[in-house]
């Protein structure tokens, strides 16, 4: 008698839109008014064949938020340190979602030539337009997010890989391994000259033996220990969806910096 072998059936991928909506609800993202969104599609790209276009795929990640009346903020950094920065047309140097948001007609974009943001939703203009000239300090997008019921939402990007809010903490807490630097990049909006001399709090290059590279590992662990991160999925598989409150995060990170001023550095440093 011959045995008939059955081929193993690979389970079908769940419907991504439903998965995202359920996960966002589970981690509390829908309880916030503003979502600062981080994405990494190395895992979630496996759902791409559920969509007719890549634009539809990207749209799926913001729809549950926008449809719930939330405002979504996404980095569109260009690192334009010289020449001209055009708010409407200078492309971002970042990933697929960051590029996608700039293609949306109803998005707003901030004017900072190096560290710009785009936003979608009812409070987009309030958060990103007419910002101050500091990338991480007074009247920056980070400054405007305070006391606004905002949260960070990581989709496919483990929290331990980093969060640029740490540079805001470094600036407001006075990190000695960074320096405030101005740039002569000319900013244009709607075809007209808008301004120049925007600033950023950047790594020093004058200390021998120190590159001042950042790490967020210890900070992320403390966020977890304090119960601030609500999480589903797997960091190892890059299927995580993780949410944590903006204001509580800024408070804790500021405390950690004052306890240990090299908490965000990959090698120990103290300015004496």
Task: Give an overview of the whole structure.
By secondary structure, this protein is of the alpha/beta class. The chain has one domain (30-259). Helix content is 28%, strand content 20%. It contains nine helices and twelve strands. α1 runs parallel beside α3 and α7 packs across α9 (246-259). The chain is globular. Residues 1-10 have low confidence and may be disordered.
Keywords:
7-stranded mixed beta sheet, 3-stranded mixed beta sheet, 28% helix, 272 residues, 9 helices, alpha/beta
Strand and helix map with partners:
Blueprint: H1 16-26, E1 34-39, H2 41-44, H3 54-66, E2 71-75, E3 84-86, H4 96-102, E4 108-109, E5 117-120, H5 124-128, H6 141-144, E6 150-155, H7 165-173, E7 178-183, E8 186-189, E9 192-195, E10 198-203, H8 217-225, E11 230-232, E12 241-245, H9 246-259
Parallel strand pairs: 1-2, 1-6, 3-8
Antiparallel strand pairs: 2-5, 4-5, 6-12, 7-10, 8-9, 11-12
Helix pairs in contact: 1-3, 7-9
